[in-house]
Specification:
By secondary structure, this protein is α+β, with helices and mostly antiparallel strands. It has nine helices and eleven strands. The strands form two sheets. Strands 1, 2, 3, 4, 5, 6 and 7 form a seven-stranded mixed β-sheet that branches. A four-stranded antiparallel β-sheet has the order 9-10-8-11. The structure holds (R)-mevalonate (MEV). (R)-mevalonate (MEV) binds next to helix 4 and helix 5.
């Protein structure tokens, strides 16, 4: 009996979250050291089984047609992929899911698991799904989790490379003069992305002039940051991160815990720091010189971070 395995990375947004939902550019990178893993084993029972031990969820699938509107994202991605691979009946397999990515933390755990499931199924079937098509399938499931996502999360995870992303535009890779070191710290508080995105939408409706100016400026920051990455200017990137964070605060998507961690990183010598992703909870990110790495990590733990991860952008 064959066993097939595959995996997909986590992601972090560097600049431009929320504004990206309104067509502004944003920058994101994969975290390749933090992954979700999927393995497929064959069995003799009738149904296809999805076993997600970390999520404490198991599902049996007996038809590849949609059976209910509120089907889990895990069931949806399996059905979408099986349809794509021209199955008419679910194969007799177990799909085992294991993820190192904290759930609801803004690190793309849902998109990563969807990507790993689709990849493993296509390898199992020996049929290739192009990255472009895979990205579309994962995006369909993202809509279920987040309502009206920009598509940045699934894109950076499916292609697993740093991206300059703008809705409706062809994918643009990010060019970086020299590797940069980032520290990501988790507040331990779930990031309610859908709620935060909806609240920004309310701001756009209630105070359009002021809110659109903020979104516009965030878009400009992403453009400038792309340039600074090409020139390797850490000081300028740090300043842009601070400005981006303050604008996100004005969009009401930061929180006391995120602000505390952002300040702690700066006081410990980071070039810059900001919340990352949907906000309210979840993660912040700091750009640091590697010589300040330990000091910043310690300061983040002392300020209440539940988990700290270092990652290099190259
Ligand atoms: C979530 O990782 C990023 C947001 O900009 C939402 C989105 O782009 O869909 C907050």
């Amino acid at each position: 009996m064959k066993t097939i395995t595959s995996s997909a990375s986590a992601k972090v947004i560097l600049f431009g979250e929320h504004a990206v939902v309104y067509g502004k550019p944003a920058l994101a990178m994969p975290i390749s050291s933090l992954r979700s893993y999927v393995s497929i084993t064959e069995h003799k029972d009738q149904a296809l089984r999805i076993i997600a031990e970390d999520l404490q969820e198991t599902y049996s699938i007996r038809t590849i047609e949609p059976t209910e509107t509120n089907e889990s994202g895990l069931v949806k991605i399996v059905k979408y992929t099986l349809n794509e691979l021209a199955y008419t009946q679910p194969p007799k397999i177990n799909i085992n899911i294991h993820s190192e990515i904290p759930i609801a933390s803004g690190l793309g755990s849902g998109a990563s698991i969807s990507t790993a499931i689709a990849r493993t199924l296509s390898t199992y079937t020996d049929r290739v799904i192009s990255d472009e098509r895979l990205n579309q399938l994962v995006y369909e499931v993202e809509k279920l989790y987040h309502g009206s996502p920009s598509g940045i999360d699934n894109t950076v995870i499916v292609y697993e490379r740093p991206v300059f992303f703008q809705q409706g535009q062809p994918l643009q890779p990010l060019h970086i003069l020299r590797p940069l070191y980032f520290i990501i710290a988790n507040t331990g508080i779930p990031a309610p992305t859908r709620e935060a995105v909806n609240d920004v939408r309310q701001l756009v409706l209630n105070t359009p002039e002021k809110t659109n100016m903020i979104l516009e400026r965030i878009g400009e920051i992403s453009m400038q940051a792309r340039q600074e990455l090409m020139e390797g200017d850490e000081e300028s990137l740090g300043r842009l991160m601070q400005e981006n964070h303050n604008l996100l605060r004005r969009l009401t998507v930061s929180s006391v815990q995120l602000d505390t961690l952002v300040d702690a990183a700066i006081h410990a010598g980071a070039y810059g720091s900001k919340m990352s992703g949907g906000g309210r909870g979840g993660n912040m990110i700091a750009l640091v010189d590697e010589s300040r790495r330990e000091a910043v990590e310690q300061a983040l733990y002392a300020a209440g971070a539940k988990r700290v991860i270092g990652t290099r952008l190259k």
